Amino acid sequence: MTRDTGWFKSSRSSGGSNGCVEVRITDVVRVRDSKNVDGPRFSFTGSAWRAFVSGLRG
Predict the structure, then answer these.
(1) Which residues contact 15 (CB under 8 A, 6 or more apart)?
(2) For the CA atoms of 36, 38, 12, 4, what is the dihedral angle to 10 degrees?
(3) How many CB atoms within 10 Å of residue 19?
(4) Taking 90 as the threshold, does the pLDDT of residue 4 lie above it?
(5) What pTM was computed for the model?
(6) Where is the DUF397 domain (predicted)?
């Protein structure tokens, strides 16, 4: 079982930005808009999240 990390905000998110996201890692990785916490959320498997982050770094 994966430990629940709670929601954490991207270090690139700021008060004046429209691109604010939060991530929560449980059995899946969830992503939401930090300015609309009750809005839609995206869910990724661990392997899909790692591939996404790797693509951003590449």
Answers:
(1) none
(2) 170
(3) 11
(4) no
(5) 0.73
(6) 6-57
